[in-house]
């Protein structure tokens, strides 16, 4: 009888260990996939189809995490990393080709410069948004919930910032990434960093030297609106430009 109880105890222990291992979220795979996907951002216009495929795989992986299907999530995160690494590698090996795709317009023209048309003509007379003004006000870039892709309507803000930095090549800026209050502190710090990095990559694509751009994440620590509603959360999901010198 004693041997039987010992056998049962061992069986329960093994079953517990196996369940514990099977029930752990793929944290390492997720971190590697998220980082690889963020790095692939710089080449998304060069290999748009694969980038969108990687983005969809990442969405599915996050959904599987929420559903606690960790084995499937691990498989998807690995696929995201593989595809994202391939996009980043292609960009590194074909930078000239990719930059042409990024900068080309509907007429096929590409002079490598940022077009003044990105800034409204009425704004050009306003010194607060004049890129030739050293004291220009820096605009805030916003994001959708749980995302770090810049909103289409906010892209001109980054173009304006790039123009300002080209006009003042000695200046260094810091991009601060923020998140709303939902989610854990660690996750929001990571998300804030990805948002800052997203904006930095946009500036680099526009021709700004990456050495002139610092990034930092404050996660949910510095909300501009402390309320707990959709309007406040949208304001707090942001990236801000600050002068370093």
Structure commentary:
With 245 residues, the protein is of the alpha+beta class. It contains nine helices and four strands. Strands 1-4-2-3 form a four-stranded mixed beta sheet.
How many structural domains can be distinguished in the coordinates?
2
Instruction: Give the C-alpha Rg.
Output: 23 Å
**Could you tell me how far the N terminus lies from the C terminus, measured between alpha carbons in angstroms?**
78 Å
Class by SSE composition:
alpha+beta
CATH superfamily of the largest domain: OmpA-like domain
Could you say which overall geometry the principal axes of the C-alpha atoms support? Answer: globular
Report the total helices.
9
Task: Provide a concise account of the structure shown.
This protein has 245 residues and is α+β, with helices and mostly antiparallel strands.
Give the SSE layout.
Elements: H1 2-22, H2 27-40, H3 48-66, H4 70-93, H5 95-103, H6 121-124, E1 141-142, H7 155-167, E2 173-178, H8 185-205, E3 213-219, H9 230-236, E4 238-243
Parallel strand pairs: 2-3
Antiparallel strand pairs: 1-4, 2-4
Helix pairs in contact: 2-3, 2-4, 3-4
Keywords:
2 domains; 245 residues; single chain; four-stranded mixed sheet; alpha+beta
């Amino acid at each position: 009888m004693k041997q039987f109880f010992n056998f049962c105890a061992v069986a329960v222990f093994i079953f517990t260990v196996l369940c514990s291992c099977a029930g752990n979220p793929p944290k390492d795979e997720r971190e590697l996939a998220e980082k690889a996907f963020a790095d692939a951002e710089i080449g998304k216009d060069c290999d748009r189809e694969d980038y969108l495929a990687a983005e969809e795989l990442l969405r599915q992986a996050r959904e599987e995490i929420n559903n606690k299907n960790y084995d499937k999530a691990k498989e998807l995160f690995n696929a995201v990393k593989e595809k994202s690494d391939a996009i980043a590698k292609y960009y590194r090996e074909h930078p000239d080709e990719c930059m042409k795709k990024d900068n080309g317009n509907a007429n096929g023209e590409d002079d490598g410069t940022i077009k003044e048309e990105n800034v409204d003509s009425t704004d050009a007379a306003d010194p607060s948004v004049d890129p030739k003004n050293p004291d220009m006000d820096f605009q805030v870039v916003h994001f959708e919930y749980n995302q770090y892709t810049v909103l289409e309507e906010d892209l001109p803000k980054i173009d304006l910032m790039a123009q300002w930095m080209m006009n003042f090549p000695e200046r260094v800026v810091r991009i601060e990434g923020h998140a709303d209050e939902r989610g854990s502190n660690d996750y929001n710090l990571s998300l804030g960093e990805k948002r800052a990095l997203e904006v930095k990559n946009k500036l680099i694509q526009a021709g700004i030297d990456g050495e002139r751009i610092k990034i930092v994440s404050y996660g949910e620590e510095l909300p501009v609106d402390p309320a707990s509603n959709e309007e406040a959360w949208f304001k707090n999901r942001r990236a801000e430009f600050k002068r370093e010198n």
